[in-house]
Predict the 3D structure of the following.
Amino acid sequence: MTQPTTILREHLHTALDLAANGLPVLPLRAGKVPFANCPACLYSRCGGRPNMKTPGPCTCPAPCHGWAAATTDPNVITSEAWSRAWLCGTAVAYHPGGAGLTVVDLDDPDAIAWAREHLPATQTVPTTRGEHWLYAGQVPSANAVRPGVDIKSTMSYARWLGPGTGTMADLPEAVRELVVKAPAPARPVAAAALAVPAGTGGEQCRHRSPAFLQRGIHMAEQRIRSATSGVHSTVYATFLAVLSTHGRCGCLTEAHVATLFAAAQDKGETVRHCTEAWANAHATLGL
């Protein structure tokens, strides 16, 4: 069994080596997700805008704020708070966009076959289910740009799985075109499951700002993805919380709901379970 000091030493060695080569790094915890925001930083109380396009300054020593926590500063990486994270973490991740890179995440053999036919050869890293293709250049990140294909670049993170093989190529136009097109669904989602309340005339949510809604959806997605047990009950509770806040004002869209469904299915929930949990939350709230 690997000793804790060995785990810490391995993670620190990897993180410092990557940082020295210009890759901003961050620790991942169980479930291959970033460490959650600490209580002092929730809801932007730290003075910044966690996980938003322009995260503000934060004096918190903990490695929170997801991708925005990624750093190349060895003093931060070896600090006491980060060392505790490396010790209990499960992997090292990096922010591709922060290093001017893009990762084309290919999740299955069909996606790999598509890439070999349509994308130029580049540095390739094997993953558990498929491959990461790395290119020089950055674009906005996007999930499910086609079946089995995610784009990880700005405002995203990728797990470090080694240097891989091959020579990195420049980001091709074919990848840039993928992120400007409407993403294809990563998995089938029943149309009925995406029904949202009509509201009272489609007016803007009166008691919350659009930024609050977007942050709320992101936090709900993060809550589902970070669940390590009781996933089904977590999904239902999250659906209930989202609907209780925004279920009557008409500001929820199908895209918001699809984001939550995708997160639940990534944790192993079926379309049927998602549909039932969404319907039950509606019924509980009388929507």
Summary: The chain has a mean pLDDT of 81. The chain is about 40% helix and 15% strand.
